[in-house]
Amino acid sequence: MTIDIPEPQALGTPITHSAIFIVANVNPGSEAAEKVKGWCGDIAGLVRSVGKRVPSGNLSCICGFSSGAWDRLFDGPRPAALHDFREFGVEGRLAVSTPGDLLLHIRAEQMDLCFELATQLMSALDGAVTVTDEVQGFRYFDMRSIIGFVDGTENPVGRKAVDFTIVGDEDPSFSGGSYVLVQKYLHNMTAWNQLSVEAQEKVIGRTKLSDIELDDEAKPSNSHSALTTITKDGEEVKILRDNMPFGRPGAGEFGTYFIGYARSPEPLEQMLENMFVGKPPGNYDRLLDFSTAVTGTLFFVPSADLLDELAER
Ligand code: HEM
Which segments constitute the Dyp-type peroxidase N-terminal domain (predicted)? Predict the structure, then answer.
C-alpha cells in the first residue's frame, strides 16, 4: 500500500503532444558535481516560470539520476534497487547499455514550451554536464507509434498507475520515487512496410486500425504484447509508458523513444529479458526484427520533495 507518500514528480501527466528527452553526463570535478546538486533545487521554479506563460500547455519535467551519479553526487542512503542498466540479448539483438548520469523528461502540449524549458534548464547547468543524447518527440496522429500502431493503450490509470510506479513502504527513505528506463529505438521501415497488415498485427498482438487485442488463439507467443505481459504471484504487473515517435525522414531515420516507469527495475528487466532473450529463450519479440535499441539507461526519479532537498545533501 502506498499511503502518505511524499509528492511524486509529474509521472501522472496526461500524454502530451510533445516531449524532449535529454540524457547527460556530469562533467568531472567537484565544481560540476556541486553545480548539478544546486540545480536540483532550481528545477521546480523553472518549470513554474516557463509553464505559467501557457497554462493550458501542461508543461512538466521529470528528472532522474543513474546509479553512478547518485553515488557521486549525494551522501546518505541510496535508492535500494538502483543499479547500472544490465544488457539483455545477444549480438545483433541486444538491449545495449549506454552512459548517462541524468535524465530530463520534458513534456508539454506544444514544443515551444518543451524547448524553452530545456533551454533554461541547460543554461542553469552552465557547462556542468555533457549531453549524450537529446531527442524531440511528437505525437503522431491518434497516439500512433511510428510503425503505425496505437501505443500506450494498456497503460495503468488512476490508483493502479500509482501502485505500479511509485515506491512505497518497501524503501521508506525513497518513497514517492520511481524507476525509469529509456531506450532509443530505430526502425527499419522498409522491411516493416513490406509486411502485410495482418502480419504486422501478429508482430504487435493487436489490430492496427482499431487497436483491439488479438484473441489468445490468434496472438503468437512471440508477439510484442504477449512477451511484455508479465505476472508475479499470479497478478499482472504493469509499467507506465510514454513512448514518443521521432525521426528525420530526409535522413531515413524513424524511431521510437521508449520510456517506462515502474516501482522497481524488476518488471522493466523482466520485459526486456522476454523481448530480447525470449520466452522460452529463443522465442524473442518479432518487433526486434524491425527495431534496434541504440541507447539504454536506468535512472531513479526521486520524489518532488526529495529532488528539492537534494541540493542540500
Ligand atoms: C521498439 C520499441 C517499442 C514499440 C514501437 C512499442 C510499441 C508498442 C505497442 C504498439 C503496444 C500496443 C499498445 C499498448 O498497449 O500500448 C505496446 C504494448 C506494450 N509495450 Fe511496447 N513498444 C516498444 C518497446 C517496449 C519495451 C522496451 C517495453 C518494456 C521494457 C515495452 C512494454 C510494453 C508493454 C508492457 C505493453 C502492454 C502489453 C499489454 O499489456 O498488452 N514496449 N508497445
Answer: 9-139
